[in-house]
Predict the 3D structure of the following.
Amino acid sequence: MVLFAWRSPGHEGEPTRIGFSVVRRLGKAVRRNRLRRWLAEAYRRRAPLIVPGWSLVVVARDAAKELDGRGAAQALDD
């Protein structure tokens, strides 16, 4: 997975925003949506640890094809 992160000027006090992108090569829509849900849940559990004011985009690439819920959480931690 790849993480793109940037600070938006003037948004320092606002909550961190995050988006998830999963490439089509990872499978059909059901599989891709499941992976997005796992990543969103992993982020939700870690959200209090993240400094506010960031914009984040997580891009799941080919290696994420074998991930399950636990693997998605571990990949987000790394």
